[in-house]
Amino acid sequence: MEWNLKQQGFEGKKGIALLLIILALLALWVPVSIDKITGFVSFQESMIRQPFADWMGKIASYALPVLEVITVICLLTEKYRKIGLILSTALMTVFTGYIGIALLGAWEKLPCGCGSVITGMNWTQHFFFNLAFLAISGAGIYLWYNLQGSNAGSEATEGGSAKRHIKNFSLTTKI
Amino acid sequence: MKKLKLNIFMVAAVAIAAVTMSFKMAEKPSATVGTKYWFQMNAAGTTPLQGPISNVDALCPDQLEQPDCARLYDESQTTGTGSSRTVIAGQINNYEDFRSKE
């Protein structure tokens, strides 16, 4: 068995940083999406109690778990990892913005609709938790582009040598 | 022998999902066996009133900063029965969940 990390572009400090970021995002989105799906009825009720129209709450109660599952699938797939990072950032921007606006007192009432990972947090703690994961997602996109750029550069300097490709292909960490 | 190549993220995601599901399964029996009670707080929002409430969502729908509308306690943190059930003095601040006044 071998972890094909180098083939997937996780080389050097930046590569390891991106790897840790994706693992952190999976540690967030996997439990959150499982919680929403397994506790869908209570999640939908809490969405309907949010301070916007009921029909919007219903749509959001279906859209959010679907988007979270798509985010997880994209993060797992090398081809769609960039989309996963962008989706993660977009979802976190929406959640953080929503809580930020609420904390500024835009709405009189704000019932709790927290997932299992963040149960017990108040809205301020929830805001900073989301802000941290927004920064992590943003850093992931930055590193992804950075690594794509450096990989493209190294390929250009190395040329299309078949020998070198074979050498790179075998540089995997065996377990 | 053909090498088995593993996607570290797939392995991590499956492990996270398994841990999450095991936590959720472990939570369920305790939620059904150990009874929890919501207590409405007094006007100052500091002391739980006598007698648990059943309609916490109607009385205290919001969760903001302060636990001053209602608090959730485990049965073991309370004493008495029925409408005379009260929170043990030393357990007042060890609530499991809370609701805030508007």
Structural write-up:
- With 175 residues, chain A is an all-alpha fold.
- Chain A is built from 6 helices and 2 strands.
- Chain A has one domain (12-172).
- Chain A is elongated.
- By secondary structure, chain B is an alpha+beta fold.
- In chain B, strand 4 and strand 5 form a beta hairpin.
- The radius of gyration of chain B is 20 Å and the shape is elongated.
- Classes of the chains: A mainly alpha (175), B alpha+beta (102).
- At the A-B interface, strand 1, helix 1 and helix 3 of A face strand 1 and helix 1 of B.
User: Oligomeric state of the chains?
Assistant: heterodimer
- Helicity range of the residues of chain A? over 70%
User: Which stretches of chain B are poorly predicted, pLDDT < 50 over at least 5 residues?
Assistant: none
Mean pLDDT of chain B: 83
Largest pleated sheet of chain B: 3 strands, antiparallel
Mean pLDDT across all residues of chain A, rounded? Answer: 79
Helix content of chain B: 25-40%
How many strand units of chain B?
Answer: 6
Shape of chain B: elongated
What spatial order of strands do you see in the largest sheet of chain A?
Answer: 1-2
| C-alpha termini separation of chain B | 67 Å
Shape of chain A: elongated
Query: Gyration radius of chain A, to the nearest Å?
Result: 20 Å
Strand order of the largest sheet of chain B: 2-3-6
Provide the succession of SSEs of chain B: EHEHEEEE
Structural class of chain B: alpha+beta
What is the β-strand count of chain A?
A: 2
Listing every helix as H and every strand as E from the N terminus to the C terminus, the arrangement of chain A reads EHHHHHHE
